[in-house]
Each structure stands twice: as C-alpha cells, then as structure tokens.
Amino acid sequence: MKFKIAFTLLGLVFAFNVASAQDCRVTLSLFNESAKVKNFSDAYPKYKDLLKNCSDYHILIYKRGEKMLEGMIDVAETEERKQELIQEFINNQMMRLENFPNDTKEGAMLADVAMIKYKHEIGTLEERLKAFEDVAEADKDNFSSPVAIYAYFRTANDLNDTGERDIQFLFDKYDEVIELIEIQENDKAAEAQPLIEKKQSQQELTSRESRILKNSEIYLRNYTKIKGSVNSLLGSKADCDNLIPLYNKEFDEKKSDVSWLRNANARLSAKDCTEDPLFFKVSEALHKKEPSANSAYSLGQLAEAEGNRAKALEYFNEAAELETSKSKKSRIYYRIANNYKDRGNYSQARSYYRRALDSKPSLGIAYLKIADMYAKSANDCGKTVFEKRAVYWLAADYATRAGIVDPSISSNADATAESYKARAPQKSDIFQEEAAGRKISFSNCWIRESVVVPNI
Asked: Does 113 lie in the same domain as 232?
C-alpha cells in the first residue's frame, strides 16, 4: 500500500513538472513572438511571469528580455519609469549569469551593466568608473565590447578633466585600456590567421570558417577605430612637452622610488621622449634599482641612438627575456627585427618578426616588413625568371595578411600587395609556362618557403 502511495505521488510530481515545463515553453514562445515585433505591452507581462515561474527554463528569456528592456528604456515616458527599467535590465543580465553560467560570459554581462549606467548617467563618475573596473577585474578576457572599452576610458578622462583624478591616474587607465584592446585584437587575429593562410593557399573555406573570418575582420576594424579614439582623447596630455616637465620636477624627490621610476620610464619610452637627458637619468636609475624589461629596453634605445647597435641588441634581448607582457615582448622583438633588417640580415630579421607575431598576432606591420624583404630578395631566389618573379606572390600574400590582422594599415597593405602582384607573373606567363596550380619552392635562398601558382 505504501509503495502504491509513493508511486502515485511520484507520478503526480512528474506530471506537475511536465505541465510546468509545458507552461514555460508556451509562455516563452508567446513572449518571444511579441518581443521580436516590439509589442512591449504584450511581451512585458509574459516576461515577468517567466522570471517568476520559469527563471531557469531557457536562456532565451534573458536574451530576448535584454533587447525588450533596451527598447522600453528608450521609449519610457517618465524618468522614474526609465530608472525602474534600467534596474530591471541590470537584474536581467545578472539573473542570466546566475541561471546560465556555462552559456554566459561574465565580462560581457558586467560590461552591459557598466554601459547602461554610463549611457544613462546612473550614479557619480566614480561609481560609473567602478562598474567598468569590476569588469576588468572579474573577467578582462571577455571585456570585448569596443564601445564599452572606449566608455571606460572616456569616464576616466572625464574624472581627470574635472580634477577628481590626476594625470598619472589617466596614464594608468590608458595603459590598462590599451591592454584590453590588444587582448581582443590578438584573440581575433589568432583566430583569423589559419583561415587567412588556408584561403591564400587556394583552399576553400567552409561557410562556418568564412563567417568566423568575416567577424574577426569586423572586430579588428572596430578595435582599430576605438584605439584611435582613445589616443585622441588622451591627446596632448601625454606628449613629451607635458611629460618631461612633469617628471623633471619630481625626479630628485622620486629617484629612489622604484614605482615612480617604472611609470616614468614606461611613459617616456612609449611616447619616444628618449632624446631628453631626463630619459637617460630615469632609465639608469631604474636599471640600478630594479633591472627590468622596461629599463633594459630603455637603455637599448639609448645605445641605439648613440650608434652602438651591438650594445643595443644586447639590452633589447635582455629586455625580451625579462618581459612578461606579450604585447610589450612583441614590441621588443619587432625593434630587434628592424635592427637586423636595416643591416641586411633578412633571415635573422624574419626570425624576430615571427617572434613578435607569436606574441602579438595582430601586429600587421611585421607581416608587411617580411613582405618587403621577400620582394627585395626576388632576384636572389628561384632558378628561372618565372620563379624569381613568383616570389612577389609570396610577398603579396604577406602584405595581404598585414591588412587583415591590422585594419589600421589596410590601405597601405592592400596597395603594397597589388604592387607586388603586378610584378609577379601574369596570366599569359602562367599559360606559357603551363604552371597553374604548380608549387614553387624557394629553397635556394634564405626565404625557404613555397607558393602555389594561382589559377588566373
């Protein structure tokens, strides 16, 4: 008898759960249809019902709820109602994170919260800044919205303009924001790189790969624009005319302060304020107190300016070994590569350009430099005139990659690629040689790569 009662109760519970799931499914379907066509008066009550009774049923509740609430905020008739809806929007994002953590990026949700506060000026400037700082602290790898990253720095800049925060604070925020942008640039460039190479080797991309490549290119262009906007905001606040007097005034008092020396050195180096005696004083003092990547790099810059390239390379390599930031390590390798390139040592230069790209896949200028070296080596590679000219296809491929991973140089990169293609064998040459689709290896020179003759 007890078994029958228990079984009956279990059946009732199961039936209740099935009915509840069906109710949730029906309500969600009706909500989704109304919200899609912006019938907010019909969608909103169903949304509230879903939050109350079906909060963990489906992530679409929150995805569609986000769009609906954004639309309702924009048309709210009173300030009081707008504020209520803004709070509901924040709750929506946080409930999504709570109920669907595996399908939700914390950084993206916190960035949405920070942006709604920024857009509608919720709280003080300091409170809005704190909302963005929470994103960077909790999940900076997924702090990916270009607009939100810009808003973060804009808020910091406003605090500096009002006198609530000093210039060093703004410099620190600038460094942080540029790092955030470069994290995303590198992720997108690394995502795109194998697809670019696949496409250039005349293999067909799947529809999914084409979509990934297209999205990566869009994001890279947007990050380039945001970086330009951030630099424009900082503007003359961080030029040498302002930095040198600022740090000169404080040097005697701060020359034993490693933290101050580190910041001053990094800022002067980043802005190429390296010809003033202050830069040498700061760099030398820092290297004595705390040998680091920054101080070694700065001393390398000074040695290079004095014409001592061997000493400069010694310092630069020391800096690369000490550096932990991939972006900064890339900058060092790029400088070493340029040093070798200027001396005509193309093989060593390419090795360091590749190291720079390994650390920062979005460093398009490194691809452009490799392309230039290949083009200049055309007469030294290949066994026939056709093969020598085929080097220009390889150079064009590298130039094209440069523009894809770094849209800020795309115009120059695309024009360079076209100029190389014009110097490569043309359709009549390929036909005459019966070379379409043939793989040409440049194993008789330093390039030691190959290219497939295009079917043109």
From this structure: yes
Is 304 a domain residue? Answer: yes
Three-state DSSP at 250 gives helix
- What is the domain extent for residue 205? 105-236
Whether residue 389 lies inside any domain: the answer is no
For residue 291, give the H/E element and its range: none
124 and 229 share one domain:
yes
d(CA 38, CA 61): 15
- Give me the residue label for tokens 């392309």: 371
What's residue 238's pLDDT? 83
- Cβ–Cβ under 8 Å, residues 413 and 402: yes
The answer to whether residues 103 and 59 touch, using CB atoms and an 8 Å cutoff, is yes
Q: For residue 339, what pLDDT is reported?
A: 92
What is the per-residue DSSP string for 216-240? HHHHHHHHHHHHHHHHHHHGGGGSH
- Please indicate, yes or no, whether residues 132 and 210 belong to a single structural domain of this protein: yes
**Tokens describing residue 48:** 């509230």
Domain count, the chain: 2
Angle between the N-to-C axes of helices 293-305 and 326-342, in degrees from 0 to 180, rounded to the nearest 10 = 20
Q: Report yes or no: 276 and 239 within 8 Å, Cβ to Cβ.
A: no
Torsion, Cα of 196, 197, 202, 208 (10° steps): -50
CA-CA distance, 80 to 396, in Å (whole number)? Answer: 59
The number of helix segments (H) and strand segments (E) in the chain equals: 20, 2
- Bridge partners of 450, per DSSP, are 441
**Low-confidence spans in the chain with pLDDT less than 50:** 1-3, 5-19
Indicate whether 246 and 144 sit together in one domain: no
344 belongs to a structural domain: no
Q: Is 145 left (phi over 0), alpha (psi -120 to 50) or beta?
A: beta
For residues 447 and 374, is the Cβ–Cβ distance under 8 A?
Answer: yes
Answer for the pair 132, 114: CB distance below 8 angstroms, yes or no.
yes
CA 129, 217, 397, 336: dihedral to nearest 10 degrees?
Answer: 10
Position 4 scores a pLDDT of: 52
DSSP state of 441: E
Other Cβ atoms less than 10 A from the Cβ of 31: the count is 25
Distances (CA, A) of 306 to 301, 310, 318, 342, 345: 9, 11, 18, 16, 21
Collapsed DSSP state (helix, strand, coil) of residue 383: coil
| Residue 345 forms part of a structural domain | no
For residue 421, give every residue at least 6 positions away whose Cβ sits within 8 Å of its Cβ, in sequence order, or none.
392, 393, 396
